[in-house]
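user:
I keep going back and forth on a fold encoding question. Separate attempts, laid side by side, tell us more than any discussion would. Would you put together a sequence-and-structure record for a protein of your own picking? Write it directly below this note and I will take it from there.

assistant:
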Amino acid sequence: MNNAHWPTLIGLAVGIILGLTAAFGGLTAFLLVLVLGAAGFVVGRVVETGEVNLSSLSTRRR
């Protein structure tokens, strides 16, 4: 599988997990999963790159 598809698949998985959490767990569970998912994302970026640089996530056109 090409590495270009990983962000799409990860986004799909996160969307499904958040949707199921909202449907069956309510707002509190949804927010908890959202916050913990964001924290896991930041930790993963630090492990992968060795630094906390989230500026590459925003797309700015010059």
Residues 6-49 form the longest helix (44 residues). The helical segments are 6-49.
